[in-house]
Amino acid sequence: MLGEGILKGLGETAKNFAASFVSKDRLTTIQYPEERAPVIENTRDFPFLVYDGEDKMAGLRCVACQICEKECPPKCIYIVKSTDKKPDYVGKPQIYPARFDIDISVCMSCQICVEVCPFEAIKMDTEFELSTTDRFGGLLYDRDQLARSNQHYHKIHPTEAAEVDARLAEEKAKSEAKAKAAAEAAALKAAAAAAAPKPTPAPAPAPVSVKEPTA
Amino acid sequence: MSHSSTAEMKVYRPPVVDIIEEGDELLEVAMGPHHPSTHGVFRMDVALDGERVIRLKPVFGYLHRNHEKIAEKASYLAAMPYTDRLDYFCSLTNNWAYALAVEKLAGIEVPERAEYIRVITAELTRIQNHASSIGFLMQEMGASGTPLMYAFREREKILDLFEELTGSRMMCNYMRFGGCRVELPTGWLAKAQTIVDGLPGFIDEIEALLTGNEILMARTQGMGVLKPDLAINAGVTGPMLRATGVNYDLRKVDHYGIYDRFKFRVPLGDHGDIFDRYMIRILEMRESVTILHQAIKDIPAGPIMDPKSKIRGFRPKPGEAYGRIEAPKGELGFYLISDGSGNPYRYRVRPPSLINLTILEDMCLGQNVADVVLIFGSVDIVLGEVDR
Known about the structure:
With 215 residues, chain A is of the alpha+beta class. Chain A has helices at 4-19, 67-71, 112-116, 143-146, 150-156, 158-195, and strands spanning 47-51, 77-87, 93-103, 122-124, 140-141, 147-149.
């Protein structure tokens, strides 16, 4: 019969129409500004810099090694190294970024900076409502705007952040144990030298941070 | 020899040029680049005699982004996110094709589990691509919205899966040389299984909605016929080629990855018209569902990256490699030449969309101008891949 196919198709749409009153599956539109879809944990859009503790600039994990700047496919990261050093999370002095800019309008959210970072310093945010009326500088973020606390990281990617924290704590414990062992060895040596019959000049105190910073 | 080849050439084209008489005036229309039917920025310079198409010249390049030269200047890894942006509906298959080419170049082995993850993501990609391509085709036919929205409702679920796994819905950037970037999140496979279980219902629904529809049949059957010999000579691949009845599917021919382990059929068309292309896509979705069932059932535990492969400072030995896969739109290949440095000496993409588009004029000659839109839609292209 001519028109049978059309009627069958209309039956299908009628089923959907009627079911949209009773079944949530059939009513799929989310009325965006009022309603929001649940955020998926692994989601990513733009990078941010992680800092530990209270002070943004003091706690920045980034050591300005410039690997992310080099690996970034669209080259949207700009870093200037500092001339002085500050202690990092294990306590050894490290260079920090005097400038760290990301042009969000160039960034393509590929996550390669996160993958190549050896210091867990750069991570992906989930904030997506970033529109601005300033065409020229509004999306060029400096290190102040990019810095987010570790708590924020825990809030948006809990599983991943827990893993990262465990890894960092392990590293810190290792380096502390190493420093402690070195200090004990130095103390032992000093004691042995003191116990020796001939008075020798006291050995210089061993430096606490023995490991050279490796990039 | 030259005689016979010109005779063969004549067979390919419908003899429409004969109907133009001396003194006839043709109307030249530029369809596009900003035309809702062109899937982006694409122009067709059409010469019309009344409603009939006498000449058709495709003009593209509006979306050229210098992909190949950028990749030659960037490291191997840095080209991976750019491949997402080729065919932005199917970023995971693009990733796979590029990763396969680099793995061939550098001789990297992919662990079993990563191969399974690749198959699962690629088949999900194929389903969502075919569903939305059918939706777009119906949109161009005048079925405003309904089939497209039904397709997008299903695509939404698959994109949510992708987002949970890769972090992004469309620009996934998931595969790496020697495996995949991250392990499947907890419960991902169970979620994927639920969605895959729901897919046959969706395909039945869209078939009930469309397949028997008289308007669809009247507008697609016998329209835009592509002959198998022309399709083979032009290098057409994918559903376009299989709709003409040529049995050529790289999953069966090449057995790349682990496709020799799965049982599936390759649907073939008979007439090479728009309706056959539509039907092939429906049937391929059904076959993809069977592959997905097998892959989700069999996926082993284990590592997802080859321990020898490294992210930074990747320098393959000098040489060349061509990696190709059956992307949803056809054969997607990456040709790489390495000179031993950190970036490829030559990087070339074989995009199925561009090559499937080359026979557009042959399909459109003698048809009405309203059907050109449909024929173009049935090729299933993405301009990001055509222009690169």
